[in-house]
Design a protein that fits this description.
Distance between the termini: 43 Å
CATH architecture: Alpha-Beta Barrel
Number of domains: 1
Helix content: 40-55%
Number of helices: 12
CATH superfamily: Aldolase class I
Strand content: 15-25%
Mean pLDDT: 94
Low-confidence stretches: none
Largest sheet: 8 strands, parallel, barrel
Radius of gyration: 17 Å
CATH class: Alpha Beta
Shape: globular
Order of helices and strands: HHEEEHEHEHEHHEHEHEHEHH
Strand order of the largest sheet: 1-4-5-6-7-8-9-10
Length: 257
């Protein structure tokens, strides 16, 4: 059986072939530096995620207007938004991203399994400030040319979030010219979550980059724990998307610090 990482890469290649990233317009991004926002924030810096499905959980929330959800997240104090553009297994789309981009002014991350410059071109066109690269895909040689993709993004006015899960991946991520490094508490091979992943990596590793913690974050106590470990920002999707009162949920998490 194809493992999850191979499936994610395969899905992105299929989406490229299907023309998912063929965008015929240009929307400006926010022009704001998320790294600076995170560094200067006195509260918890949340990157809240608009996602309706995931490989781990299947359907998370009934697909509704992403703009309405995004506006509630912004009203609750989100520092940035992550919006899924991958259709397979995530029910995302560039169209969802563009709808949100036209209605919010904060930084936005195009959340996808980036394997090709075509996706970076799309990120620029839909108004993304950041796009995602997953370190393990490059370490396992499922995808090649990480630094080339980062450089291509920078030349096109985009910044890059590189995501790691192990100490080795984290160290490799910090050696790149990525703008932010994320520690994913979810093991993408098994889909299991452990918040101690962030703790173990940061107590052993150099923190020369802005570090965010991702996955499995549900409560104010989780944020305080991860912040104490050294994380400066927090990417939270499922815990917010599953909640009936999105704005109040975000506000409570932002005010946890």
């Amino acid at each position: 059986m194809e493992n999850i990482l191979e499936k994610l890469v395969s899905n992105s290649k299929k989406a490229i072939e299907d023309g998912v990233y063929d965008i015929n317009e240009q929307i400006p991004n926010s022009g704001k530096d998320l790294g600076q926002i995170i560094t200067e924030s006195k509260n918890a810096s949340l990157i809240t995620e608009v996602k309706f499905s995931s490989p781990a959980l299947g359907s998370i929330r009934k697909i509704t207007d992403p703009v309405e959800i995004a506006k509630k997240m912004v009203s609750g104090g989100a520092a940035a938004l992550s919006v899924l553009t991958q259709p397979h297994m995530f029910d995302g789309s560039p169209e969802f991203f563009m709808k949100v981009r036209r209605n919010v002014k904060i930084p936005m991350l195009m959340k996808d399994i980036t394997v090709d410059k075509i996706q970076i071109d799309a990120a620029k066109k839909i108004g993304a400030d950041y796009f995602l690269l997953i370190q393990s895909l490059f370490d396992k040689k499922m995808v090649s040319g990480m630094e080339e993709l980062i450089d291509y993004g920078h030349k096109n006015g985009l910044k890059v979030l590189v995501e790691a899960h192990t100490c080795e991946e984290f160290e490799n991520s910090c050696k790149t010219s990525a703008d932010i490094v994320g520690i994913n508490n979810r093991n993408l091979d098994t889909l299991k979550i452990n918040l101690d992943t962030t703790k173990k990596i940061l107590e052993k590793s150099d923190q020369s980059k802005i570090i965010i913690s991702e996955s499995g974050i549900k409560t104010a106590d989780d944020i305080r724990f991860l912040h104490k470990c050294g994380a400066k920002g927090f990417l939270i999707g499922t815990a917010i998307m599953k909640n009936d009162n999105i704005e109040e949920t975000v506000r409570g998490l932002v005010n946890s610090i």
